[in-house]
Design goal:
Blueprint (H helix, E strand, L loop, with lengths): L6 H41 L12 H20 L4 H21 L3 H11 L11 H8 L3 H11 L1 H25 L1
Helix pairs in contact: 1-5, 3-4, 3-5
Amino acid sequence: MLFNFDPLEFLESAATAFRNARERRRLRREALLSFRTSLLREVITQLDLPFGSQDGTRSVEAATQVEQRKKSIALCADMVRWTDDDITRLCDAMVQTALESLRDAKTDDTRREVLCWMAPAANAKAPFSFEFCCRVGGFEPDAIRHFVGRNYRDLIKKFVGQEQSEERENANQLAMAI
């Protein structure tokens, strides 16, 4: 026999790897689209554009404000152009830096910040959340959380205990104030 493996098994594993890679690319595209949509929503809400009076006419002052804001947006858009590859590299670097910070941090505050960012209760839909960065970077967030939970269990218990004691202390202070 020329091969030490079954060619059919090899083809099945190659097909599975291809499907998995395609799924990761699809998830990455969806995450990037979601990111761009949320940024656009945020820009629109921050602009708070005046769209005219009750009768449908725009005052000169409102039109001037709209034009100034349009110029500001165009200037900002020209200053920074993010490609999908740039966002992917940034997200990848954020996840890797978080894991390195967790491993190498000299203070508990840094570790607490990283663990809070990775927490499942954090806003997964927010731009640059842990979930978003993992999806875009091609990582599996639950696998990373499992690894971190297994290796930093004592530290996580310590932080949770501290947080619970702070909450009890705040509740006691509130009760004494009433």
